[in-house]
């Protein structure tokens, strides 16, 4: 379906403005270059315990903002949230620098609607099954699709969020939250060490390197978790579980269960499958901030299990 269709049914919803497109390239390339530089820096100088602590802390908060907030809550409605938590999750997810919330949610709902078929924005199987086609598909699923200027139609895929003025406000403030996610670690590092150099190294490690690491972990769920791994549950696509990414992705790489049961609040449902995101949702529920959580049940799992 083309963009000439009715505005509420079209697959695409316009193109990213040139300034925003340049920003996308910037936030793909600059943090990646920081990661390349990080190897010699870590080997000889420029990395402190403060930098490590800030990087781990900011990685955890922003990753969970994306996984619990943007993904399990806003995209799939795995639980309901009190108003304060709703806004907090929208801001925390924005700090991950993976795009404004309306774009993120619309893209991901479209991914599920057309998973591994034409219309999926980031399937690695769109070009065929030959070695060359798979290599091309991997690049597309991991990073190439992000550089495409076409935008998913928010009216079709995210009308509920468009109807919320607070969420639209957080969406418009994406530039502000991007600035915060870089400046706040730098300011904290500078204050802790009481030095400009402490601010610089914190910006580098807890800002740029942390952002690019989280980017590639998230993109690996799109690419790697649709190419290789175990498929114990019946999904209508090639989603798979990749245990090696489980901790860094906060449980998102238990991807086969997620595609078999997208609204389930826990993705790692078998013994030993660590799912930090699900544990945080459990904490929110105990605190009374989240409710109507869609936890997995034996009956629910039996319906989708191959075993």
From TrEMBL:
Annotated signal sequence range: none
Cellular localization per UniProt: Membrane
Stretches that traverse the bilayer: 22-43, 55-75, 87-105, 125-147, 174-197
Coiled coil: none
Segments forming domain Fatty acid desaturase: 59-268
Domain of life (superkingdom): Bacteria
Keyword annotations of the record: Fatty acid metabolism, Iron, Lipid metabolism, Membrane, Oxidoreductase, Transmembrane, Transmembrane helix
Membrane topology: Multi-pass membrane protein
Sequence similarity: Belongs to the fatty acid desaturase type 2 family.
Name recorded for this polypeptide: Stearoyl-CoA desaturase
Species per Swiss-Prot/TrEMBL record: Asanoa siamensis
